Amino acid sequence: MIPLDCYHCGEPATGTPPITLELEGALRHFCCVGCKAVCETIRAEGLTGFYQFRTEPAVTPKALSDSERNRILEVDHPLVQKSFVSPVTAGQEATLLVSGITCAACIWLLENHMARQPGVVSFSVNHSTQRARLVWNPEHSKLSQLLIAVHELGYRARPYQADEAEKALKAEHRSALIRLAVAGIGSFQSMMLAFPLYFELVNDLSPEFVSFFRWFSLLVATPVVLYSARPFFTNAFRDLRSRHLTMDVPVATAIGLAYVASAWVTVFGGKEVYFESVCMFTFFLQLGRYIEMQARYRAGLTGNALAGFQPMVANRIQGNGSDIVATHDLAAGDVIRIRPGETLPADGVIVSGHSTLNEAALTGEYLPETRSEGDPVHAGSINGENPLEVEVRRAGTQTRLSGILRVLDRVQAEKPPVALAADRIAGVFVSRVLILAPLIWIGWWMAGADNAFDITLSVLVVTCPCALSLATPTAITSATMRLRKLGFLPTRGHTLESLNTIDTVIFDKTGTLTRGELSLVDTRTFGNLDADRCRQLAASLEKHSEHPIARVFHQIPGYAARQVQNHLGGGLSGQVDGAPLYIGHRDFVEEKVGSPAPEADTSKGMEIWLATDRGWMARFTLDDEPRPDAREAVQALQNAGLRTILLSGDRSGHVEQIAGRLGIDEAIGQASPEEKLRVLENLRDQGHQIMMVGDGLNDLPSMAGAGVSVAMGSAADLTQLKADAVLLSGQLTQLSEALKASQDTRRVIRQNMAWALAYNVCALPLAAAGLVPPWLAAIGMSLSSLVVVLNAMRLGRQRGNPVSHAPAVGAEATS
Amino acid sequence: MQIVMILVPVMLILVALGILLFSWAVKNGQYDDLDGPAHRILYDDDKDMIPDDAKQHKQDANSAEEPGDSHKS
């Protein structure tokens, strides 16, 4: 049989009998019923254009399980809606976070599909952030129905609420754009007004005209200085109070002095005004900062990251009934019911029921643990198969999860600010100029010159640290662009500079060096069935479970199984073609089959057995495999002279083994988040500069303590938000590329600095001697800035082969 | 030269209006998504707005591509 790919998602379509659908006269094959259902929905709505427009295959849709459906239905509760729904004139408005969008056609499909739902007033997806804005009429449709409508197409949507930080970031982003526009337009206008003054193009320039032009230049420059340049003034003021000279101080001084002096000249008469220099300077600097901010903006948009970890409502049991209360109203002593699939809202002790809990948020352990009556449980864990009743011991800010987040905040607050090279040099330079300028003025005044003030002003303009202050941001912006293409996204201003000093790299294990999910590494058969058929039999049972072990088989097409039962902590049983089938741990299957398991060589990893009541069929070995490029990446780092350490909270016990396989220098296992931080602090006290690569919430405190923290692209939202850089592609080899890029960046910054300083040092004596007319000062300033910018552009050029990676959004692939 | 005395203030008023318009657009969220519109224009979502006779014409051009549509229109 010719291997066929699923028409919808591109996975192999190997089902027997084949799942097909006639679409526009051609027979299409599908890998699963889910894909076919989505395709049918698309056809019924006449949106088949999706298949012609798309540039990436769609995500394989997954049918909603009952617990997921129940959780979606919960959003209709007014207590839940209170936090993210706001009334607008046409109805209710909510922001949704949509996942599964692979290219621009997905957005087109979603928007058209949603527009057809009853009650939807408007639905629009933001291409860059994948946030959707939904306005609907609550009289015609419930929010849960609309969320389910999104799921019908194979995408996932969850309500999303921007937190304060994101709102501030958004407001800042918008106001920066307006500031930039004001400065840009202002600089054009003032330049136009300055032209006749500088070059005396108009021959009969009467004093009235000069005065007229100056007054209007003042009018144009005032909003530029007071509005566009305000961030420089506030930052400079803050820096002066903390006695820490940064780039903002000279910038603010230059803008402020030039503006005040020009205004003085305009009112009381004098030789020159510098309004256009003020405007242009502000515009250039704002432009540099805006581009830098744009790079950070997208990475910072992870918003209400805690939403996924802490549910908003809880089901409190009172007497015989139960009622839904807000999570923050829970108190110690309350008994709450946790349904399967729900996240625990508080720390407590199980009073009845037993289930498996996924505690990945706290421990980083990806396999769920079995918990029963009397066991302590923690907020942030996700309940597995069975309902639980939990007595709350600690709620709100006293939970273990909140504790970890508090440690994170403290570590971040204590972290000393990175002293940027540019700031240090500029600080020295500026303080010298500020001392020199009054001396020059006194000197000329003593010598009896009339134009002492003009000369002093031109000293300030000539030495205006434009090139000096552009040296770093341009180099960093250009290097950031290059790293973005590689899938390494620096999110802080200091990341690239800090990378230079790194001498130790610490990796988390699960999800960082490994994939963070189980995969099938070996199948051994004992009966007369071949391995493929055994896997398909296993898949038919595992389809009915949400356990991480079961997910390994979800991609494999299976048969219809009936009477599937979940035996907690053991496995699954069911019937396929009338024959009973068991899958699970050895003990569980042995008990059902009634004969001991066949002898087989022990293998690394987890063993899952498959059997009928007549005999054993197969053994599957599952393991969390290291990423394919992990070994190469570790070696590249070691070749660069870096020490590598594996630091894991994992109890799976093969921390050492993974470290050995990958050739990592040192391995530390079973570390709690606090212990991880202690290891880091010890290393730091020994004088090491550390880069920490991690992905979980439990890595957060130690990541905050590291010199540079890198989060994997698949990491929790909060981890990505707090990290200094995000490895979007998940390719570890890019780490050494990033280190190389940071060295290049440092070289370019130094060249830029050298140039800017040399220029300033040459120009300063000339200006002090009164030999530089103001227009020459302005041209010199612009030229020196241009050299700096062009030099920085060299960084953006890619050397060697660009590494391909699958981008998250189609736009990134096409742009 | 007296005309400059009038032209310069007029220009400033126009510029001020431009900035007001721009800041309204930014605050209205029109600059939040700079990628989306570039893609959106590529998709045909106006099939129902094309008059029937024009549709027929288009059908001939690429009838091989969408034979299923012919009885609908």
Structural commentary:
- The complex is a heterodimer of chains A (815) and B (73).
- Chain A has 815 residues and is of the alpha+beta class.
- Chain A contains 29 helices and 29 strands.
- In chain A, strands 17-29-28-27-18-25-26 form a seven-stranded mixed sheet, with helices on both faces. In chain A, strands 9-8-10-16-11-14 form a six-stranded antiparallel sheet, with no helix packed on it.
- In chain A, helix 16 (466-486) packs antiparallel against helix 27 (734-768).
- The longest helix of chain A has 36 residues, at 164-199.
- Chain B is mainly alpha-helical and 73 residues long.
- Chain B starts with a helix and ends in a 12-residue tail after the last helix.
- Chains A and B meet through helix 5, helix 7, helix 8 and helix 29 of A and helix 1 and helix 2 of B.
Task: Give the helices and strands, then pairings.
The complex is a heterodimer of chains A (815) and B (73).
Chain A: E1 19-23, E2 26-30, H1 33-44, H2 49-53, H3 66-73, H4 78-81, E3 85-88, E4 91-99, H5 104-115, E5 120-125, E6 131-136, H6 143-152, E7 156-159, H7 164-199, H8 207-228, H9 230-241, H10 248-268, H11 275-300, E8 313-318, E9 321-326, E10 335-338, E11 347-352, E12 355-358, H12 360-363, E13 369-371, E14 376-377, E15 382-383, E16 388-394, H13 400-414, H14 421-446, H15 452-462, H16 466-486, E17 488-490, H17 495-499, E18 504-507, H18 509-513, E19 519-525, H19 531-542, H20 548-551, E20 561-567, E21 571-576, E22 579-584, H21 586-593, E23 606-612, E24 616-623, H22 630-639, E25 643-647, H23 655-662, E26 666-668, H24 673-685, E27 690-694, H25 700-705, E28 708-712, H26 717-722, E29 725-727, H27 734-768, H28 774-793, H29 810-814
Parallel strand pairs in A: 18-25, 18-27, 25-26, 27-28, 28-29
Antiparallel strand pairs in A: 1-2, 3-4, 4-6, 4-7, 5-6, 8-9, 8-10, 10-16, 11-14, 11-16, 12-13, 12-15, 17-29, 19-24, 20-21, 21-22, 22-23, 23-24
Helix pairs in contact in A: 7-8, 7-11, 8-10, 8-11, 9-10, 10-11, 11-16, 14-15, 15-27, 16-27, 16-28, 27-28
Chain B: H1 2-27, H2 36-40, H3 52-61
